[in-house]
Amino acid sequence: MSTGTTAAREPSCRIRALHTADTVTVYQAYAPSLGLPAARDGRFPAAWKRDRMTWIKPSFLWMMYRCGWATKAD
């Protein structure tokens, strides 16, 4: 039975960030030895390793799930 309305499908990927029509700002944390040269030079320094690269966390609730928040004993 149809209700006559069509629900919008949620996208499979979504980035929550500050944005305007021209820019998207996503914050990513790096150690000062990596972040400062990257911000200054516009590229990562030689000490940066691709295999240590992290990903943007999708949400606070996802981070809570991944760290086992509220499920671990004292």
Assign the structural class, choosing from mainly alpha, mainly beta, alpha/beta, alpha+beta, or little secondary structure: mainly alpha
Mean pLDDT: 76
Please give the number of β-strands.
Answer: 2
Strand order of the largest sheet: 1-2
Oligomeric category: single chain
**Helix content percent band:** 10-25%
Gross geometry: flat
- How many whole angstroms does the radius of gyration measure? 19 Å
Low-confidence stretches: none
In percent terms, what proportion of residues is strand? 5-15%
Given the structure, what is the number of helices?
Answer: 2
| Major beta-sheet overview | 2 strands, antiparallel
- Tell me the series of helices and strands, N- to C-terminal: EEHH
Amino-to-carboxy terminus distance: 50 Å
